[in-house]
Amino acid sequence: MINRFHILNKKEKNKIEIMLKNQFGIKSIPGILIKKGAEKIFLFQGNFNEKQIKELEDYTQIERIGLYFAKIFQDKQGQEHIRLSIEGSQILSNQITKNIFELNESQSKKWMQGEELLIKTGKKGFLVMKYKNDFLGTGKASEEKIGNFIPKSRRLKSKEIIK
Amino acid sequence: MKRKIPEPKPLFLERIKKLLPDKQDFEKYLKILKKPPVNSIRCNLLKISPDKLKNRLEKKYNWKIKQPFNNYSDIMIIQSELQPGELGRSLEHLLGYYYVQELASMLPVLVLEPKENELILDLCAAPGSKTTQIASIINNTGTIIANEISLGRIRILASNTERCGVTNTIISKKDAISLCKNLKKQGELKKIEGKGTLVPYQFDKILLDAPCSGEGTLRSTIRTYKMWNINSIKKFSKIQKNMIKSAFEILKPNGILVYSTCTHAPEENEEVVDFILKEFQDSIKIEPIKLPIPTRQGITKWQEKEYLKDVQLACRVYPHVANTEGFFLAKFTKIK
């Protein structure tokens, strides 16, 4: 097994589930979780089990397993936090019950252009961003604003093309 | 803006004339090359239903959208005039609700008919249009191994599978022939050792959308006019034969292999089909193909070579016949 990937065991997965439950009310994650590097968590829902994935790596170079789903962060106090990718927020949308921030149309456009939003939410920490039925990943709320994590490749490119 | 279309090379024209001997047919072909392909998208069923997507895009962007095939409501044609790149810049595209994909490029997966819970190998997977199409159809069940040799193209593949919410795929980096040989060898070794294999190194379905000279993409990729040369056709033909042979060896009994290219060159198409039918004559069957667009059958004679009669069951997709890009498809079953 190439060390770049680490398939989370039951205990490690449980830890992620607890973090997601505390942050967003998510109860369970259906599938195998894989850690790549120190922070990135991938979700695999295919029908290969852990042993099969490991064996496959003996015969080919595996570049990715499943989908980038969440990222773990440590704050200055050493406490761990989790934020969901756009797809992570979409896949678990049915389970997200708290820390959802409903955007209006103009905010959603700014959000998808990668801008931080100067909004006082009264909350601190990660919020799932939502516009109507679209789940748009997570932002980090501080006193004055919501920080944006939309990757460049997923941003609306310019104002002119937005209709 | 008017597109500047270069003159096709004389040898290319000579060859196409042989494939399309009817003068009117040939002229229709040349005429359509000057027109860009229709704007088509495929709804990503993993994220949104075709009805919802169609309504949303029509309402929001005022696009006129047609679903040309009753059985494939995920396939949509945008009939409105669009700005260059407009389809790729919408919010719905960025959120992975649809994939911008040329109609002909959707055909191999329709022929493959992937089913839920199958183990599927997409041997030359980048940029991911077909991998994401398979995942969409099988609803993220089963497992897809999406292989690609180039790291640069793997990045595009990974970005597309991610945008489309594909969770059942393992992306592998290996040259296609070595990957198949490794899987075959290791599967056999384990069998001899009596340990059994953890990975079932035989696939229910294999898609070999092979690297090719790209003659079928002239409408969208104008640089193909300049890049075309007969030597690359010969080179690709050799690689394609090695690829299809290696792929067929790791197909399950009763498994299905679909071979496709986006070229018209018989050396890369019927010659490859003829080769694989002769190579595995006792264990292979070429299947008839049903497609929702008009196609033509495979040819059985090209220059000095004659191919098996069954090669006719393969499909030629000509741009002037179905108003698509050019493509070639063949479907095989492993019978032993």
Structure overview:
The complex is a heterodimer of chains A (163) and B (336). By secondary structure, chain A is α+β, with helices and mostly antiparallel strands. Chain A has helices at residues 10-24, 50-56, 86-91, 105-112; strands at residues 5-7, 32-36, 40-44, 61-65, 67-74, 80-84, 100-102, 125-131, 134-141, 146-147. Chain A is globular. The model of chain A has no long low-confidence stretch (mean pLDDT 92). Chain B is an alpha/beta fold. Chain B has a single domain, classed as Vaccinia Virus protein VP39 (Rossmann fold, 3-Layer(aba) Sandwich), CATH 3.40.50. In chain B, helix 6 (103-112) crosses helix 7 (129-137), helix 9 runs parallel beside helix 11 and helix 11 (230-248) packs parallel to helix 12. The interface between A and B is large, with 39 and 43 residues.
In brief:
The complex is a heterodimer of chains A (about 160) and B (about 325). Chain A is an alpha+beta fold and about 160 residues long.
Query: Beta-sheet strand percentage of chain A?
Result: 25-35%
Give the termini distance of chain A in whole angstroms.
Answer: 47 Å
Structural class of chain B: alpha/beta
Helix fraction of chain A, binned, reads 10-25%
Tertiary shape of chain A: globular
**Termini of chain B, distance in Å?**
55 Å
Mean pLDDT of chain A: 92
Biggest β-sheet strands, sense, barrel of chain B: 9 strands, mixed
Structure summary, number of beta strands of chain A: 10
Average of the residue pLDDT scores of chain B: 95
Q: What structural class results from the helix and strand content of chain A?
A: alpha+beta
The fold-level CATH name of chain B is Rossmann fold
CATH homologous superfamily name of chain B? Vaccinia Virus protein VP39
Strand ordering within the main sheet of chain A: 1-2-3-5-6
**Helical residue percent of chain B?**
25-40%
Number of helices of chain A: 4
Rough outline of chain B: globular
Chains forming the largest contact: A-B, 39 and 43 residues
CATH architecture tag of chain B: 3-Layer(aba) Sandwich
